[in-house]
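User: What would this chain look like folded?
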Amino acid sequence: MEGNESYKTAYAAAYARLIEQHEPTETRLFNDIFVKNFFSKYINSIMKFGAIRKFMISMYNSTSIGLYGLQVCRTKYIDEKLHMEVH
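Assistant: Here's the prediction, encoded as structure tokens.
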């Protein structure tokens, strides 16, 4: 589909979830047991390094300041609401 770039939004959300999964447990906002399955072993392995995660977060925020924080907070909110409705 030429000109259709809607996949970028989904990819950005998935990357934010992946980055968050590699954050230390005590500061991680949510757990996503599935997101690692959407990325290659290589991407998963480099996300273990804090410098790589910081770089990725800075790339997010270069588009719009605070975009990464917005994405993970929004994700946490949606996850909590879904969990409340299901349970």
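Residues 5-86 form one domain. If you want, I can go into more detail on any region.
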